[in-house]
Predict the structure.
Amino acid sequence: MAKALAQSPSLWHTDLTEELCEIDPRVQLRMQAGRYETAIFDACERTLRMLESREALGRIHFQPVSGGHDWAWWAPRLLSGLKEFFPGKLLEVSDHAAARGDSPR
C-alpha cells in the first residue's frame, strides 16, 4: 500500500484530475489545504467534485485546515497525517537510542 500526503497542493494552476483517476488502486492520498489559502483550498474542493463519480475518490481524501499557506499548520498536520498512515506506537528518541545501545545524554 502506497501512501501520500499533499499539503497545500498546487492544484490551482495544474489540473491533475485525470492523473488522479489513474493512480494505482493501492495508493491512498490525503490532501490538506488551509481555508485561508483560497486558491489552493478552492482547487482541492473543485478537484474532489470532479472526482465524485470516479472510483479514485474513495482513495483520495481532503482535510480542510483552519489556516493559511504557512508552517503554523504544516508541521503538526504532517505529524498527525503520518500517524494516520502508520498507526501504533511512535518511536521516541530515547527508545531509538536505547535500541542502538546508546546511552541518553
Q: What stands out?
A: The chain is about 40% helix and 20% strand. The first strand starts at residue 2 and ends at 7.
